[in-house]
Amino acid sequence: MIAAITENLTGIGRRVVGAVWRIGHGTRFLGLILFHSGTSFRRFRLTVKELFFSGVMSLIIILVAGMFVGMVLGLQGYETLKRYGSESALGSLVALSLVRELGPVLAALLFASRAGSAMTAEIGLMKATEQISAMEMMAINPIARVVAPRFWAGVLAVPLLAAMFSVMGVFGGYIVGVVLIGVDEGSFWSQMQSTVDFRYDILNGVIKSCVFGVVVTAIALFEGYDAPPTAEGVSGATTRTVVESSLAILILDFILTALMIQEG
Amino acid sequence: MERTTLDLWVGIFVVAGLGALIVLALKVGNLGTYNVSETYQLQAYFSNIGGLKAKAAIKSSGVLVGRVTDITLDTERFEAKVTMSIDKRYQFPKDTFANILTSGLLGEQYIGLIPGGDEEVFKGGDVVKKTQSAVVLEDLIGKFLYSTASDKK
What we know:
- The complex is a heterodimer.
- Chain A is mainly α.
- Chain A has helices at residues 2-35, 38-42, 44-54, 59-83, 90-128, 131-137, 142-181, 185-195, 198-226, 231-263.
- By secondary structure, chain B is α/β, with parallel strands linked by helices.
């Protein structure tokens, strides 16, 4: 009986210590990336190549998703606003929810599941097939050559993708609200422009997506670099990337929103 | 260093992303519509501002002419001191009325300027003397109840 309890307790303790250990290790890894990122700017072509794989290849999913999210917002927003006779506020509803929340958060979630998981699997496999060790053997620093360019590509890609997501969402809301339902076009745009503030809404959204970009890419790269060099290890690491970065995005979103609202 | 199609795609990606930011700033946000023009400051004292907030609109004949920049409580007069920044293109006579109005029944509150007939116009830093406070719904209901009660006597 007592043996079972102590066993459980030690199990919990071991998991907590393990988690804290991993957080510390991940932070040190982020520091290492920043320390070795000179190469990604001196040989900018490396970063451009990764920007192609993580950014350009995510374009389709981001644009289509943004469009449909905006269309749903337009439809649902219209149904609700109609009850209060303020359909003209549809523009500001769609734009504010996209620019402040949905754009940064959904773009980062999509980026994490599309590009983040691919990064983890790629680096995990490079490690499993001993390409990373081979680089170290040739006195090439794998963090500078493989990890840091991917990091900067992700950090650059996420804010750009979030901005495109928001624009496509506003366009989708415009199509549903103005073209299909028939909300007045002038009040759609003018209400939007009078409520969306450049500094308070748009810049804060960009700051959010920059933070998400750093966190998502750092988690993906760390999980890949830290993965056990087996097939099972890589698959587990890919799963962990998606789970951890999704949770990190949603939790950070709450914290950042709380900070920004107090400031404003 | 030769150019590749990959560079082209990344270029398109970056340009599209920055373009999206510009569209957000100019078409969705208010950067293109207002913040560029020069402004002058006016002050007005209100005994009650209701739900007026900083950044609220200032309109004259329904046209947006400025924004509320600051709201503080003046502890000498115990009235709300509202600082407004008005577009330089619009000059108002010295006997202009400043009223706190509500757009629609439940909409947000804004300041309406009703120009008088004075020859002189406001300069930066002037105080609007003629003001009318916000209509507070509770006061209105209270007055209504009071008057109906006294009618019945």
